[in-house]
Amino acid sequence: MVGDVASNLLSGDTMAAKPRVERILSNNIETLQSWSEIRTRLETLMETDEERNFRKNLAKGYGIGSPLHKVRLYNESNKEEDIRVTFYRDSASWCPYCMKVWLMLEEKQIPYRVEKINMRCYGDKPASFFKIQPGGQIPVAIIDGRVYGQSNDIMYALEEQFTPQQGYKSLSGRPEQQSQARDLLRLERELFSGWMIWLTGGGARSKRDFIEVLERVEKSLSKTGPFFLGESVSLVDFMYASFLERMAASLLYFKGFFIRVPPGEQTDYPAVNKWFDAMEELPSYQLSKSDYYTHCWDLPPQLGGCTYEAGCEPYEKAINGERSLDGTQGSWELPLQPHNGGVEPDWTWTAVDEAMAKREAVERVTGNHEAIVRFACRGAGKKGIPPVSAPLSDPNAVPNQVVEFAVDSCMRIVCRALLEGTTAQQECMSTIAQTIVAEGGDNFASGVIDSLAYVRDRIGVPRDMKLPAARQLRAHLNWAIKIITDAKQ
Questions:
Q1: How many Cβ atoms are within 10 Å of 75's Cβ, its own excluded?
Q2: Which of 274, 364, 407, 459 would you call most buried, defined as having the most Cβ atoms within 10 angstroms of its Cβ?
Q3: Within 10 A of 17 (CB to CB), how many other CB atoms are there?
Q4: What are the residues whose beta carbons fall under 8 Å from the beta carbon of 470, sequence distance 6 or more?
């Protein structure tokens, strides 16, 4: 469909419509504020120091952690010249092995530099990286000049070389817990193996085998809790964290199997759910945690595919934003249902109310709006050559500039609707939609819709923003898409 739209948009009639649409949108819609005006409005609404200082703190990595950091100092007592760790992790925040290392660095508050490297499934790696890691695998860490090329090796090195005597938190557990820790790490490998076999293959036996191991994990946690070694988080928890998170998402999406449930819901795995609750209290985990949608689209290209089983379709549709479990609305449709209709627990632990989540979405868009609009226009453009295996990634795609101003206009109204409410912006968005259809024609309007849908489907958590903000932005983009679609009809 995208290819057909791109061809039609390059036709003479559609190209001629471009200046007409731009002229009318520029001259006749007085309420179409500039990006700088929207940014100023956002800043007047910010309520916390974290919000106000977010951009200022990015350069040095002060304050609350962000996936956008290239340098992470935590506070002004740490100096950039004293950094001992360079952390090579994936650009999209998809890699589970990178997440384990990221958690360790943040929990121990070790200052570090970040170098972002593409995964094979969505892009090429620079030649300079292969000089460090000939096989190309990530993560990699350079600690005090020495290269470590496997996640577990990095984690143990961080624990051994950044000690309590130097002012860093210990994550090893007590001496008498070391035998228990080794047993738990062997159990983690069993759980991982069982998950992989069921997720990528399927069948009753693989399901039974996975559940048997998960029940042993549940039993272990029920004896200690909330963490694997008791009341305090340890390296063991971080070994489990990235994969348990991905199990909860992928097994619901592909198999219809619940591990993580919303608060108050019955579960066969209460101790595992309490462990998730405890992990979600940690700033290190809050920073690196992803959402079900991102995981369920990033795992298949990493693993070579996942298999669906009967009964998963309602959960697949709910996670993809297509339909809520109760069938009453789209799951990315306003008003948003709590816990995505019972599919994925809301991130109540963020202490972020709905208004703050909306402001976060606007902050991320206004902070990089030119690049985001160009990226969105890939939806009406040409697919990249050569393609990559990740369906939500196309680094070689060519944006279609014909729709760029119209997409930019819609994105501005979406941001204003996030700040002021959709009711306040309904008339303006309707006027834009009517102009797009009347002056641009159906093909032009389809290109704008495809562009908005393209960026909607590629909002990554945590790469771009936290889940509450992502849900709001996805839903508000759907609000704009529906208005243009209605104008076409």
A1: 12
A2: 407
A3: 23
A4: 291, 361, 459, 460, 461, 464
